From TrEMBL:
<dbReference type="Pfam" id="PF01081">
    <property type="entry name" value="Aldolase"/>
</dbReference>
<dbReference type="InterPro" id="IPR013785">
    <property type="entry name" value="Aldolase_TIM"/>
</dbReference>
<keyword id="KW-0119">Carbohydrate metabolism</keyword>
<dbReference type="InterPro" id="IPR031337">
    <property type="entry name" value="KDPG/KHG_AS_1"/>
</dbReference>
<keyword id="KW-0456">Lyase</keyword>
<protein>
    <recommendedName>
        <fullName>2-dehydro-3-deoxy-phosphogluconate aldolase</fullName>
        <ecNumber>4.1.2.14</ecNumber>
    </recommendedName>
</protein>
<comment type="pathway">
    <text>Carbohydrate acid metabolism; 2-dehydro-3-deoxy-D-gluconate degradation; D-glyceraldehyde 3-phosphate and pyruvate from 2-dehydro-3-deoxy-D-gluconate: step 2/2.</text>
</comment>
<comment type="subunit">
    <text>Homotrimer.</text>
</comment>
<dbReference type="GO" id="GO:0008675">
    <property type="term" value="F:2-dehydro-3-deoxy-phosphogluconate aldolase activity"/>
</dbReference>
<comment type="similarity">
    <text>Belongs to the KHG/KDPG aldolase family.</text>
</comment>
<dbReference type="InterPro" id="IPR000887">
    <property type="entry name" value="Aldlse_KDPG_KHG"/>
</dbReference>
Length: 204
């Protein structure tokens, strides 16, 4: 529950694909100072696991993203990940995550995929890729038929889309890589703006 509570507080899940040369500690500090206690690091590059190891004692709740197999999930957990995110629903990863007692957020798009995730006992789902599939409109429809599910829309989302997602009753947090640029002051500004757009008070 710790991860889900942190997501609910942050309303954001910043996502980083490490290329090398990033100021990881600088980004971690900005996230903490701006009240975002989580970071998803993707395993899309070989530097991902190393970055998890680097930040494992940063105080952030680290997640591993783009996890496609149980082997990758195991490596990520050993490197310090506390939650697992996949682009699609991978049953073997769901079983491993349950055994290890860590949250697993698989990507879904269709109602059938949502039903499949629910059968596996998964109630917090990544909605991916959100923007090409008009995520805010789809999630509004899902709120009616799947009221027990909370979503992490991710994929192509930028600042200008946030007002569409902010009022959704089934939004847990918005995920995205646009927040974390190599320019630390710019990353801070983007996080601040995003948080302001996503907090309930900001909607008047
Ligand atoms: C992901 O891995 O979830 C996506 O690549 C994130 O999408 P974005 O880079 O468009 O934010």
């Amino acid at each position: 529950m710790e991860v889900i509570e942190a997501l609910a507080r942050a309303r954001l899940l910043p996502l980083l694909t490490v290329q090398g040369g990033e100021d990881l500690w600088g980004l971690a500090r900005v996230l903490q100072e701006e009240g975002v206690g989580l970071l998803e690091i993707t395993l899309r590059t070989p530097q991902g696991l190393e970055a998890l190891r680097t930040l494992r004692d940063s105080g952030l709740l680290l997640g591993a993203g783009t996890v496609r197999s149980p082997k990758e999930a195991e490596a990520a957990l050993a490197a310090g990940a506390r939650f697992i995110v996949s682009p699609g629903l991978k049953e073997e990863v769901a079983w491993l995550a349950r055994e290890e007692g860590v949250p697993y957020f698989p990507g879904v798009l269709t109602p059938t995929e949502v039903e499949k995730a629910l059968e596996l006992g998964l109630f917090v789902l990544k909605f991916f890729p959100a923007e090409p599939f008009r995520g805010a409109q789809v999630l509004r429809a899902y709120a009616e038929v799947f009221p027990e599910v909370r979503f992490l829309p991710t994929g192509g989302i930028k600042e200008e889309h946030l007002p569409l997602y902010a009022p959704l009753p089934n939004l847990l947090a918005v995920g995205g890589s646009w927040l974390l640029t190599g320019d630390i002051p710019l990353a801070r500004a983007r996080i601040r703006t995003a948080r302001a757009l996503l907090t309930p008070q900001a909607q008047g």
